[in-house]
Prior knowledge:
six-stranded mixed β-sheet; about 30% helix; alpha+beta; five-stranded mixed β-sheet
Amino acid sequence: MNTMKRVLMDIDTNLFRLALLENGEPVEFYVERKQTESLVGNVYAGRVETVVPNLQAAFVDIGTGKNGYLYYGNARAASGAEKENRPKAGDTLVVQVEKDAVGTKGAVLTRNISFAGKFLALLPNEGGEIGVSRKITNEAERRRMQEIMEELLPADCGAIVRTNGAGRSKGEFQKELESLLQKWQSVKQAEYRKAPALLWQGNIPVLKAARDFYSADLDSVVVNNKETYDLLAATGDFSGEGQPKLELYEEKTPLFSSFYAESKLEKALSQKVWLKSGGYLVVDQTEAMTTIDVNTGAFVGRRDFSETVFKTNLEAAQVIARQLRLRNLGGIIIIDFIDMVCEEHRQAVLSELRRAAASDRTKHTISEFTELGLVEMTRKRTRESLAHVLCEPCPVCGGRGQIKTARTVCYDILREIVREFKQYRDAREFKILASQSVIDMFLEDEAPALDLLQDFMGKPVTLEVEGCYSQEEYDVILL
């Protein structure tokens, strides 16, 4: 059964949203604000600020306000003399952004410049390096593309043929190669600018998305903006035979709503993901890693408990693979499946997870079950996750995901009053300003504790509700 693939591009004044649909179901979202555009692919003249020999790394100022991280341990220097080209503080280097800054970490940089097209990636200064995507398995086709590249490439450049290059003609490769070489020439002409400086912008969101999602099995690209439609049409990638169809969406109903992508985008931000069986996942994302916990929930099954657990874990494996793509979760991922005693069941769940993740375009690895029954996996992080782009830490809990109970806050206030009393014994009265829930707790369950404190100090304590305070906020005023 062929999969119907469609890309939706929703263009707003300050926001670019993309959804990849497979048979009408969103499988990937990409969201970018103009204020936080991705830098991946950009080439800079950077100034080395510090070098850390123990890490074989340098921190490079590229003019974005946060120094980038350059690992030089396995750098392939342009001259081929790696040791002689290790950076020193004050050096100017031509670098390219591999990964965007995430949290407190700066962007990851590389000196191995590359320019990606739809069918191939150009590797300047790596003469003789010709690779073919491992996903192209036909040996005759691999040899054909190798010969074409050997004929077309300049002696000082290398290239990698991408999966989309399968079946493409020599003329198509030549046209794209000429375009990529022009980009490299523009960088070379600008590399002597004073650092830090942007030499080439590799990420125009619409064009980058069109390139990254362009494939032989893509049926159509739907755009809701006439200017963007004209920009994509001018590339010539949507007019020939066998190319995706480019459509301009002009209906009154918003594009994402029309294709039911809006509601799925909202659900992709939820911590809890329900399974059809009644079980559910709990997805917790932190800066260090993402954990996914699988629970049976209301699913009890018709057979024994082990069969219920097995079926829940099988369904969870499928949903987890989809959620990783939807949310663009990267880095270290720990999956806590429900405990299974049967080794056959464990291997079946692991196989299902790998099968479901096989369609993921992002590089990933999946380990075996650990002794604790956990599955560890990694997924390449090239940009911030959906939650990091669209959300911010909760102003009430500070991003902890939980707040102190009203009773706990009451105890904090009582201790604060005791500290203030010991320091300012001449105060006539103490007033507590707190949220409604905390004041209610003082008037009910914690009234005896408050009376005891007043007797101890011989001073009155009055209560006042402050409507704008969160449950954790309070003030103690001395009168």
